[in-house]
Amino acid sequence: MTDTTPRYTGPERVLSGVQPTGRLHLGNYLGALKKFAALQDQGRECLYCVVNMHAMTMPHDPKELVATTRSIAAAYMAAGVDPNKSAIFAQSSVPEHAELAWVLNCVGRMGWLERMTQFKDKAGKDAERASVGLFTYPVLMAADILIYKATHVPVGDDQKQHLELARDIAARFNRDFYKDEIFFPQPDPLIEGPGARVMSLKDGTKKMSKSDPSDLSRLNLEDDADTIAKKIKKAKSDADVLPETAEGLNDRPEARNLVGIYAALNNQSVDEVLAEFGGQGFGVFKPKLADVAVEFFGDVSARYRELRDDQGTIDAVLKQGAEKAREIATPVMDEVRDLVGYWRAS
Ligand code: TYM
């Protein structure tokens, strides 16, 4: 029997974004930035935006938002994203994101959004006082992706649920406005790898996060060598030696996290790391991890600091990226306007 399911025949396209809030940490790097550069280097068409509109969903300082938007662009470049190959731009420079978000707000269902765990985490106990933007945040994220008909989205594990929502919204739009044919493709999340969920250095059951009040819980992209070495020395571990295989890390969240970080930084599998360090204690492993981290951070953070101070270059990159992005977004939004029945002068 021939398969009659419609298939998306448009071009493959990668899109992702990072919020300009707080300082970037190792989780952001391993979960997202490292993959951004790798996908670009595979010769794919890539768009990387700084999602400054998402950063408004929590209270923010306008002046600081301008500065952090630039610094995320600098971090993309420090991580190896080449502005001549990939578009680097600010979300707010392409108004089609916001325009499509409205359409998608009318496609998504309350029940879908009510299930989003990140809203529950961020809004906390006082959800009544959270901004409406925080609640509809995942719809804007779906618009970021679908306005470019992106097919692949590199993100960390914490964004999985948002990606599922984007897929549901795409399918529902196609059903309601495109006779079940494929206008918006189903975006595939690219999550796999040992860096997909980097945990806190102080608690292996909690995600490494910009908002953790303890700076010792994370390695920041801006930390110098001494700070990194100190944080790794102080990282929570346990009293056992490392096991010979990955299975032995079950029920040892801190050990699993530190081995995972080593593996991701060194481009090895967890089993390869354990083949080398199995049977050794943290007294041996931690200094080795510190060496790997210092070497890696030394390179990236030196590039980051240099680029961050060069405002002229960053602004030129963001402008060029926005032009590239708008070339794709404009015709898609035009089609959406017709599909949903917006009036236009004839
Ligand atoms: P944000 O800014 O919180 O995080 C940026 C990226 O870093 C990843 N990440 C992690 N990965 C591994 N371990 C961790 N501990 C860790 N912490 C963060 C995140 O998964 C993310 O990939 N909603 C998104 C931003 C966004 C977006 C988009 C992403 C808006 N629109 C469209 C992709 C496509 C966010 O808040 O990421």
Helix content: 40-55%
- Count of DSSP-assigned helices: 12
Task: Note poorly predicted spans.
Answer: none
Do you know the CATH architecture of the largest domain?
3-Layer(aba) Sandwich
Using the coordinates shown, work out and report the CATH topology of the largest domain.
Answer: Rossmann fold
Please trace the helix and strand order, writing H or E for each element: EHEHEHHHHEHEHHHHH
- Briefly note the structural class of the backbone: mainly alpha
Describe the structure in your own words.
This protein has 346 residues and is mainly alpha-helical. It has two domains: 13-190 and 311-340, 3-Layer(aba) Sandwich (Rossmann fold), CATH 3.40.50.620; 215-306, Tyrosyl-Transfer RNA Synthetase, CATH 1.10.240. The protein is built from twelve helices and five strands. The chain has helices spanning 26-41, 62-78, 96-105, 110-114, 117-123, 132-146, 160-177, 225-234, 253-265, 270-277, 282-308, 311-340, and strands at 14-18, 46-50, 87-90, 152-154, 188-190. Strands 1-2-3 form a three-stranded parallel beta sheet. The chain has a two-stranded parallel sheet with strand order 4-5. Strand 1, helix 1 (26-41) and strand 2 form a beta-alpha-beta unit. Helix 2 packs across helix 11 and helix 8 (225-234) packs antiparallel against helix 11 (282-308). It is globular and about 75 Å long. Tryptophanyl-5'AMP is lined by residues 15-19, 27-28, 30-32, 51, 54, 141, 144-145, 153, 155-156, 158-159, 162, 196-198, 207-208.
